[in-house]
Every structure is written in C-alpha cells, then in structure tokens.
User: Fold these one by one.
Assistant:
Number 1:
Amino acid sequence: MTGRPEGAAWFAGRRATGVVDATSDPARLDAGGWWAVVATFEEEYRFWRFADVRDAPLPPPSGPWRGPAADSWRTSLDEQAYVAGVSQIRHRVLEGEVYQVNLCRVLSAPVDPDADPWALAAALATGNPAPYAGVVDVPAFGGVPATRVVSASPELFLARDGDVVTSSPIKGTGRTAADLLPKDEAENVMIVDLVRNDLQHVCVPGTVEVTALLAVEQHPGLVHLVSTVQGRLRPGAGWADLFAATMPPGSVSGAPKSSALRAIADLEPVPRGPYCGAVGFVDADRGSARLAVGIRSFWWDDGELRFGTGAGITWGSDPQAEWAETELKARRLVGLASGVEPRDGQVVATAAAAAGQEDR
C-alpha cells in the first residue's frame, strides 16, 4: 500500500488504521481494543479505537514537509511577559502559596492546510529522535473532533503493564550535564513526591516506590534529569481512576498541584491544549499502555501549527535563565518544523530568533 490512509496513528513501532470508535470517556478504554489517546492539559479527553493494528515502522510521507516560514512564529508570552511571570511565581513561593510552577508559552505559525503530519514526523524522526515519538492523524468521528498531533516527546507520563503502572517525570534541563544545578535536583525531587502522591490514590498501599532518582538522560541538543516511580494498581482501578488521579501530569504543573494550577491559570494567556497533556496508546487487549507527556509536540489548531515550551520555576530560579531554557527546548524542534537543519546539535539562528519574537 502506498500513501497514507485517512485516520491513522503510530506509536512504539505499531501502526493503527481504520477508526471504528471514538469517545471522550476514559472508562471505555477498559473494555478492550487498541486506542490512540490525546488528552489536553485542561483534561479534555479524545480516544480513538482502531480496527487494524500491526507492527510497522513510521510510514513514509506522501511528500516533503511544507512547514511555516522561520520568521512566522509568534509566542503567547514574549520575553518581558515571561520574565515577569517568573518573578510573580517566585513571589508566590515566598508567600508560601506554592513550591514550584511550570510556566509555559505556546508558539504558533500559519500552516498550509495540506501540510502532511507524517512528513513532519519523518523530519523529527531524522533530526530529533525521541523515545516516545508518535503521530495521531484522525478526522472528526463519533462526536470527537478531527485531531492532528505529532510528538517527539522524551518523557513517559504513564506506562501500564498489567497492574504495574510507571511514571518517569523529567525536571532539570541543560545543554550538558555540567549545566544542571542543585535547583534542578531539588525541583526533580519535589515532582517525584507529587507523582508518588498521585499514584498512591490508585495503587495498592505500600507498592509505590521510586525505582530511579535523578538519572541524567541525553537527548538531541540537551540533557534532562529523570526519575522513575512505580506502583501496582489496586483491584478494580480503571483508566478513569488513573486519569483522575494523575492528570494533568505533575512534571508540567507543579507542587502542590492545585496551587500550581491556579498560578498557571492566572499567568498563561492561552490554553495549552495537547501540550503538557498526554499522547500515546492504550492496548486494552494486551493490558499495556504508553502515554507520553505531550511536550516537544506539534498540533494543528484553527489553521495554525502550534508548539509549547516552558520551564519549572522555584524560588531558586533566575528569570532570564528560565526564559533561556524555554528557548533551548524550542530551538531545535521549531527549526526542524521550519525546514532549518540542525548543525552540530543546534539550528541556525533564524528559527531560534523567530521562536522568541514578541506576539503581535
């Protein structure tokens, strides 16, 4: 077969075609079948069940990727507004309202309506390979709107293997391991505690444990601090319970989560959408799932291609350094989406500058 069938998804070396069901109800995932998952940070759920799922590499695109011009990107928070937001969060920490908040901005640019998401996925696979890469490209079906998401996420939100559930939050980013600071380690430990608490709501008491702490992972152009938390689901706990306990992901919200979400609502001018939500698959027949945190991900929305970037803010944050971290996380991916090839782990300056332009 050549070309790309309408309505398809690809995750973890498996290609799914032929949408036969769609829902926004997480409980339906427990009934069986292979489902593609896109959940927004605002906890809007979209699930699609596919008829045909088989092992396959990422399918070739129907043509070259036609992405936005490098100078067409705009940001929901410019540098001045972002730095002010960091200062506001530090004030909230000083007042005892919160310990850590992930402050994010959304980049957007006009995109050709015929731009092929599979071509973007191929460009990212070549220029920024990621452990939880995936694609969801489905038309409107069963009351669930059309959705296009291409992810190069490095972060595991939830894995499920039988009754074992695993989460590997990322907190701490630098160009190299030498850039990681004590602030990054403290931030990671805060989020590990939050993830442990989330999982304890749905796991058998005494089974939630930290199996890896502060591991340094190398990714294209940067490094991350990653920890892993694991537990055993209590009998009868289903997907509705698991999402209710863990969404939105702790690593991209903050601690305490309720206070961090209030700060995010106050300081971020646009919804995050799939960015910082969950993207992946649930194979209910095999009792397995892999859901990534929707970072390093592109999505189509109202004629635009969108991409989010952010940083975790604590009392120890330097506002200008946090802005620079959002630039670092966006630079390579936005460059690839604009057809700017990486050079020695970086991209040329045009796309980087465009990602930081003031929204106007």
Number 2:
Amino acid sequence: MINGQVLVKVPASTANLGPGFDTLGMALSLYAWIEMEAADGETVFELYGDGMKGLPEDKSNLLYQVAQMVFEEAGVHIPELRIAMYSDIPLTRGLGSSASAIVGALVAANALAGSPLSEEKLFHMASELEGHPDNVGASLFGGIVVSAWDGSRAEKVRIAPHADLEVLVAIPTFQLATEKARHALPSMIEMKDAVYNVASSSLLVAALASGSLELIEFAMRDKLHQPYRAPLIPGMSEILDKATEHGALGAALSGAGPTLLTLVDRRSTRKAELEAFLIDTLQQHGIQAETRWLMPDLNGPELSIGQTDRSIPFMERIKGEVRA
C-alpha cells in the first residue's frame, strides 16, 4: 500500500463517433483530477467546482464505492479515505463525465493499493460499472479505442489519432440525462439500417486507423441512434447534415448528447466559419452553447504518487492545468 497521496488526471471522452454505437470512443483534452489517500479518521471529501455541487459527500459517493471495489478485488483493507476532486468536464453533456470519474477512481485506488490490478482488469471493471466500454476505454487508454463488451468480457484495440485530427465541440447549456437519451431509441431496427451502420462503423474505423481523413464524412453516418435523438436537441439534424459544407471532416452527436462534435483537419482555414455555423445554428433554434477546440488526448490517465505538501491546497496544486 502507498504511504502518501495519489493524484490522477483523467481525460474526458466522446463516444460513438456517429455509427459506432457503444463501441467507438476517443479521449479528449478536457480533464478531471482525483486525489486519494488513506485517512486516519473518518472518510473526507473535498469536491471543488460548480460541477461537483449536489454530489454526495459520504460513502455513497461513486468515487468511494469504486475505490472499495478495487480494494476488495486486491485484497486490501482501506476503509477510510480522503478524496479530493475537481473536473473541467461538464456533467451530463455527452463528454464522459461519469466514465472519467470511474476510471479516475479505479486508477487512483489501484495505485494506492500498490497497483496489483492490470489495466485490462481495470478496463473490465470500468465496462461493467458503466455498462458499455466506449467512454471508459477511451479515458483509460487514451487515443481512439474500438471496444466490445458482452456482459462478461471486455476487449479493445487502441488507434493512434492522425496528427492533424482536431475536435470542435458545441456544448449546449442544458443537460441531457443518458437514461432519457436511451429511452428515445427504438427497441427494434430494420435490417437495412443495421447493415448501414455496420458498413459505416467498419469504414470509419478503417479510415481512422489508416489516416484516410477524406473518408470520414462518408463513414461518419448513422441510422441507429442519432435520428431518434435529434428531436431532443434542436438544430442537431441541420448541424449533422451541413457541418461538412462549413469545413468539418464529419459531425456527430457526442455520446448521448446534447454536445455536438465535429472532426476537423487542424490545417483547415475554415475553423472560424465552422465555429460560427455551430453557434448560429443552435441559436436559431433557441439553444445557447459554448464551443471548445480540443485535441485527442493520447495519454489516458496521468498518475502522480508521493507525499504532497498539504500546506498547498488541492486547487492550488492543479491550478496551472485547470481550464480557464
């Protein structure tokens, strides 16, 4: 067991990328920080930022629950913890906030226990907790992750994103619960739509793996979930249909939404045009949104272990990296 603190910086993620429903994910350069150590007395939580408001500060907290699962699996007894967390990842916006919390807690607790569990074991546990492997796989391994989960086994292949691949997201001010977004989906689909998505998803994976950016527009099409979720997000259909006319390589709903994502060649001269198109289209439908230019995160969780100068507050220690 580590005698001291562990600090984990874990990336956000986008899932599906259009046709890859519950199978494709990409890590993004938005981050959450989780610090964990054994506590001498009772368990203590230090939750910072507006995104943490309302989260439980007792042992029902997800971070504590996940940590205890790791300790049980590792045969380690650490019943009382100090857990600090801050996140730049907006909640319930389709950017993997829950997945980043799960992955961060798994990695932190595993490190605190002396790292007895492999990354593959952590991936399995994360997939089971989240119910699908796309977001957690991206946050855990970084880059683009193609994954499969059958309820008992999780497998993945990691793809290094093309060096010129950049991401522009439009994050609406309203939240959209994943459960509500999933309820919008039909219980059955037509065979031709299933074939359409298998073809699109397969081509998209091949395009991303080979760096064939010119194929993204054709491959990033979906009939499995986005058409059914579009009524929940005014302006979404127009953005998916026309983003490539304004400089995007392709566009998709990020996860369950409501964030909309475009893939962009970083050398493009039309970035301002694309950003204005996203903002203006959503505004025309009465939706206020914030845009952010992001890069694919290549590293996954970044772990620091050791004694920390507790005279320096948690937020001061991570301040240089927190997104303004």
Number 3:
Amino acid sequence: MRRRSSLVLLALAVFFAALSPLLRWYAFPRLAKIPAGQYQSVVLEAKNATLLDYGTMTAKKVSKVSIVQTLKGNVEEAKKVDQATGRSVVVWDSLAYIVGPDGKMVSALPERYIFDAHSQDPVHYAGESVDGDPVTRQGIEYKFPFLTEKRDYLYFDSQTRTSAPIHYKGTQNFRGLEVYYFEQTIPWTRVVLPKKLPVAGVTPASVEAMGMQRWYTTKRMFWVDPTTGAPVNGEEIHQEEMRYADGKTPPVTAFAGDVKMREDYIRHTVALVKSQRQLVLLMTSYLPWGFLFLGAALLSLSLLLEARSRRRRPPAAARTYDPEPVPVG
C-alpha cells in the first residue's frame, strides 16, 4: 500500500514541477493581455502656465491648462489587424484634448496606436497615425511592458513623431507601491502645428505663411508599477515656442508649464494597479513558486514512504537444503 502511495505522490510531484515553468513561460504570455476594448481617461493640469493667444499671437499667463487624455480600444479594427498579421493586437484611438481656463479648446491631437496585446511592441499596419499623419512607431507609448525591467526603453514622442530612450533612474516608493522611475528629455525640436487650432481661420498653413515655426521641448517623467507596466503617475515640464524663420525676431512662448496628473486620477490609478498586479503576480510568482515547492514536498514524501516500505519489508525466508545420501561400499 505504501509503495502504491509513493508512486502516486511521485507522479503528482512530477506534474506540479512541470506545471510551474509551463504556467510562467507558456500560459502567462498568452493570458496576460491588454483587453482589446479597454477604455480609460486621465486628466492632467498645468497650473500658472503660459499660453499663446492665437488671435493676437501674444503669450499670456493663465491660472490653469487642462489636458484630457483618453484611450479607447477599437475592437473592430483590432480584429482586422489580428486576421491580417496573425497576432493578438490592441488598437487604441487616443485623443489629447487641451483646454484653457475658460474651458475653450486650445488644441486636439488624435492618435491611432497599434501594438501587441502582451509585449506592447508596436505593430505596423495601415491607420497607424498621429494627427492624421501616418507614422511608424518604434518602442512603447503610454504603457510599459508587463514585468518592466530596470533598463532604458525606446519611447515614442507624438510631437516629434520620433522615438528616443526613456531612462530608468531608480526605484522609489509611491503611495505604498514600489515603482520604477523613468525620465526622458526631448531637446528643442521643430515640430508641426496641430491641424485643429482654436481660432477660426487660423491654420498651420497661415501661421507658417507668417514666417513662424513651432518648436518644442519636454522633460517627461513616469512612475511605473513594474509588475503591470502601468504608470501610476506622470509629469511633464513642457515648453513650446513660436519662432520666426528669419532668426532675428524674438520667439513667442506658445505654452510653458509643469503638467501633472490630477490628484483624483492618481488615487484611482493606484487603486486599480494594486488590484490588477495581484493577477499578474499569481501567474508569474505565487503559483509557479507554489507549484515548485509543492512538487518538491511531494517528492520528499514519496521518497520517505518508499524508504519506510523497504525497511518494513520482511526478509526472504532462508532456504534449507537436505544433504544428499552418500553411497556406501
């Protein structure tokens, strides 16, 4: 009976030991994915900012500029890209809608971002764009990969339409979470004007006809939960100038401000990430290590039962032999 039990325990030990890496390296990449229909929004604010009045082309101080950033999963487009590429992808239609203190639109920047649902690697397909212009992204945008590493990543900048390294700067504690802090600086770069401007009749073409060019620089900062790859806080020290092509006339500040996530959105994001990270940890840490230790325990118990079974097994009965008669004479 003990021998049969030890064999059953040995089989279970092999099963759980094999299940441990299978769950981590096979199941996790296939199960941990961004939902195709995900919708989220966040509000960022720049208080005491400088803003350009396009009507008079002069800069003025304002109490607050708000940026409403929305990400909407386009399920139908994702299905088309899935079928065409054979990959599980997410298509995000995003919009950065900027309003001044009076609630009126300052600019709007739409994007279509297509990426792998698990790795966050960009997937190049028709429709990938910024403000209606086709782009070919390299690197990540908005979200970092699951199980973010302590290293630099390529991060796409929608203003310059280029990618540049975003640097890992260390580990910090943020609202009870251990997070990785990343930082990226985009130097002064000439960029295109948004196609949608707040003043009727003022277009990118008319501004350029005045001999003006838009230049931009920013210092971008993210506090990222390494388990889910989700930023729990973001900030940008952002500056834009309208410069004259002659190089002689002084530039005009189009925007200058320290853009930060609004407090209520920080609290909501932190709470959401704290709940979601447990699911990722379950597949990458808790269950794989638990199954491995369980397999080791079952193996030890199996060997113990087998050893006891051998010790208690009675020795084979000694055989006796009758001597053959010796013939006489």
